[in-house]
Specification:
- The chain is built from 29 helices and 24 strands.
- The protein is of the alpha/beta class.
- Strands 18-19-17-16-20-23-24 form a 7-stranded mixed sheet.
């Protein structure tokens, strides 16, 4: 740098120069460095330097934390530098590029208001023509040692070696090497202050060798760590190291080893060989993983599920029939067929050690106690209770689980509920099994086929567990409101129908269960409220219309709440007795007509009987005759089957027109309109066939139909009455509607054995086989045949002699 030397050759002794204090940096001669200047005094010093040949003295501060240094805070030796470039930044700071030129000694600082001014003199003369042998030897040693330093220190680029090797001036060489060293500030300042070249080279050589020793120690430490890491991944080692440190600190002295704990749980779980081998393989895989990795979490969760599934644990099933019967009777009134089936199962289990669990399907309207009956069965048999609601389930994975390849995968609800129950032989309730649906994710009802098949469920394979689990010890019970269940699934279950409750059964249920339960729930004592039997009957008749007792319980709860409010506002010692004429005060006006049939006999109006999901209903069927061209109109939101029944009934009437005294040409002169009221309610089914036919005959003959007669039955074109279903519900509806006589198909006579005696005692049940018998019972008078020949009508249908007589009356006594 001859240019710099000539620039400062004319520097007089003790020349005044502006001073720029530096933090954490020492600038050596021949060193070019950018600086960011923000202090006001430093900026003034730069401005002054730009006015005086761009020369300034750079001096390091003793303490970098001092923001406004005094003269005592600055070193006495600095570097006279040349300002190469100055740039003012928008935030007020100044970026300056400086080049160190000569060491200077500061004789005196003068602190002005704007900046520091120092009187300086140079510390070194231009290099001699020759160099001593000692200096040459030190220079070579320094270059060799610095070469080793650069190879060990990865922070210094290798290109520095080539640039340093090309420097001939030993002063500049020493300064360049010192600038690239990672040294403390006081060490860098000491190198700057050493004036003698040999001494400076020797001191710098000692510092480089010291740094090399430190780097070699670091390299040895890294080598030892690397050897230890060869057995596992780097992360695993680091985590183990953290654990070791925590243990040394005493934080984890008593903490159990998670891997060992999982191993012990696998041994105690009682798994079959296949599952145990799978669990051990996954545990060995877990040992090789970093505890903090995502894959380790997946494996840990899988092992947790495997050991939590009850492979061996079970409850001892009670086989005391008397005790089980007492539990069932205490929890539910009626439901004799269900209770009998449970007791049969327990009786057989006493004889046979291994009995595949029965799969019962309780089918009945809402509110008859299907779900609560499942809990009672579990209590009677001393089984744990597990329930899964299938309403709205669309995904097959809800049953079988997700495969472990998916993030957040879990076993299916069956394995989950078994793990929650903690035993392998609970009572498992599939609630609302008829409400399942399917979509693109699969068909859950098909997945249930394996679960509910006693021949297959001993090897049930969940997609998540991937090992077989024996479900043969589980007692499965399903509930449904209808038989809208896929046939293969229905075939695997034993269907037990739970019909609606009779009025007497509802009365007993309310007295035994509902009233005590609601009094307890609402904080009432026995001496504070009494609801009479007549009041309960009126609640059943006029405030609820259901097969079950849910709405009845709501009405009782409403009474209890209002009584609690009265007692709270107006305390009294008298018991509140709710009688029928007070029901309006507690539960409001009557909502229903108690299903009453028409009080007067009407032409063309027949009372039919229908089955719905909430029990039986009275169905009014109306037929009207108007002049027209033979059009047949049917209204009332009728289904396809019911519309076909109207067509069949019409053909029966036309085929018997002569026998019934009807004009054979009526279908060309009149329009017939059949309407089933409550038009917004969908209706379908064939059981209203004889009702349709009777309404048509009444409208055509103008003979009224007896209002006290209700009927149900399918009709054929020959006029034969075919059997129907839901007989008990329909008879209950007839009894509720104060019907006196019920006409049923002859083939349903056998079903009367299942009807309670008190219902048959109030109804006159008339089994029939032919439509003529129905008309004889239902019409006020019998139509007289026309004397003239019935042209185009065809031959009358021949009937057995027994069919021409009215069906025998079945009152309660004779039915049983």
């Amino acid at each position: 740098m001859k240019r710099s030397e000539t620039l400062f050759d004319s520097l007089p002794g003790h020349a005044p120069m502006p001073v720029l204090p530096l933090r954490d940096v020492v600038v050596y001669p021949h060193m070019v460095i950018p600086l960011f200047v923000g202090r006001e005094k430093s900026i003034h010093a730069l401005d002054l330097a730009m006015q005086q040949h761009k020369r300034i003295v750079l001096v390091a501060q003793r303490g970098a934390e001092v923001d406004d240094p005094r003269t005592s805070d600055l070193y006495a030796v600095g570097t006279l530098s040349n300002v190469l470039q100055l740039l003012r930044l928008p935030d007020g700071t100044v970026k300056v590029l400086v080049e160190g030129c000569q060491r200077v000694h500061i004789h005196r600082f003068t602190e002005t208001r704007s900046c520091f001014i120092a009187e300086v003199s140079t510390l070194e003369a231009p290099p001699d023509e020759g160099m001593s042998q000692e200096a040459q030897g030190l220079t070579r040693s320094l270059l060799n040692t610095f070469d080793q330093y650069v190879k060990l220190n990865k922070k210094i680029p290798a290109e520095v070696l080539s640039s340093v090797a090309g420097i001939d001036d030993p002063n500049r060489l020493a300064d360049t090497i010192a600038a690239h060293m990672t040294l403390k500030l006081d060490e860098k300042q000491k190198i700057l202050e050493i004036q003698d070249l040999s001494e400076r080279l020797e001191h710098l050589l000692a510092l480089v060798e010291s740094e090399i020793d430190i780097l070699q120690v670091e390299k040895r430490i890294r080598g030892r760590v690397k050897q230890q890491m060869e057995k596992s991944q780097r992360e695993y080692y680091l985590n183990e190291q953290m654990k070791a440190i925590q243990k040394e600190l005493g934080d984890l002295e008593d903490a159990p080893n998670e891997i060992e704990e999982l191993g012990q749980r696998i041994e105690k779980a009682g798994m079959p060989k296949e599952a145990k081998d799978k669990a051990k393989a996954e545990l060995n895989k877990l040992k090789m993983m970093s505890p903090m990795s995502a894959e380790a979490t997946v494996v840990r969760n899988y092992i947790d599920w495997l050991v939590n599934v009850p492979w061996r644990k079970r409850t001892k099933v009670h086989q005391d029939l008397a005790a089980a019967e007492a539990v069932l009777e205490a929890d539910h009134y009626g439901l004799e067929k269900v209770k009998e089936r449970i007791l049969e199962y327990l009786a057989v289990q006493q004889r046979a050690r291994k009995l595949k669990g029965p799969i019962l399907c309780l089918v009945g309207p809402p509110g008859v106690g299907k779900t609560s009956l499942g809990r009672s069965i579990a209590r009677a048999t001393n089984r744990k209770f597990a329930r899964m609601s299938l309403g709205g389930v669309r995904d097959e994975a809800e049953i079988r689980g997700h495969r472990r390849t998916y993030i957040g995968s879990l076993p299916g609800k069956i394995i989950q509920n078994l793990a929650k129950a903690g035993v392998r032989n609970p009572l498992f309730l599939f609630d609302e099994i008829d409400k399942m649906s399917m979509d693109f994710r699969g068909d859950p009802s098909s997945a249930l086929l394996e679960v509910l098949d006693p021949e297959q469920n001993n090897t049930f394979n969940d997609h998540y567990l991937e090992v077989d689990f024996d479900l043969s010890d589980v007692m499965f019970v399903a509930t449904a409101n209808s038989l809208n269940i896929p046939p293969p699934l229905l075939d695997r279950m034993e269907v037990i129908r739970i019909p609606g409750y009779t009025e007497d059964e509802k009365l007993n249920i309310a007295l035994r269960y509902l009233i005590p339960k609601q009094m307890t729930n609402n904080g009432l004592k026995e001496d504070e409220l009494e609801i009479t039997e007549d009041s309960i009957r009126d609640l059943v008749r006029f405030y609820t219309r259901e097969a079950g007792v849910r709405n009845l319980e709501r009405e009782i709860a409403k009474i209890c709440r209002k009584v609690v409010k009265e007692i709270t506002l107006h305390p009294t010692d008298h018991k509140t007795v709710v009688v029928p004429n007070l029901l309006g005060k507690y539960v409001g006006v009557r909502r229903f007509r108690y299903g009453l049939a028409e009080e007067q006999d009407q032409i063309g109006q027949v009372t039919g009987l229908a089955w719905t999901e909430v029990g039986g209903e009275l169905l009014s069927i109306e037929a009207a005759l108007v002049p027209g061209k033979g059009k047949l109109i049917h209204t009332g939101h009728l289904g396809e089957v019911m519309r076909e029944s109207i067509q069949a009934a019409m053909t029966v009437v036309r085929s018997r027109a002569g026998m019934l005294g009807i004009d054979p040409e009526f279908h060309q002169k009149y329009d017939l309109h059949i309407h089933v009221p409550e038009g917004a309610t969908p209706k379908d089914g064939p059981s209203a066939g004889i009702g349709m036919c009777t309404a048509l005959v009444s409208a055509l003959t103008r003979i009224p139909v007896r209002a006290s007669v209700a009927m149900t039955g399918e009709i054929t074109l020959r006029g034969e009455v075919l059997p129907i279903g839901g007989l008990k519900e329909k008879l209950l509806a007839a009894q509720r509607g104060t019907i006196a006589t019920v006409v049923i198909p002859e083939e349903n006579r056998k079903d009367l054995t299942e009807i309670p005696e008190n219902i048959l005692a109030r109804l006159e049940v008339r089994p029939v086989r032919w439509i003529d018998q129905v008309l004889e019972i239902a019409l006020q008078t019998q139509p007289s045949p026309k004397a003239q020949d019935t042209v185009g009508q065809g031959e009358p249908v021949a009937m057995p002699e027994s069919a021409t007589k009215a069906g025998g009356v079945l009152d309660g006594a004779r039915a049983h």
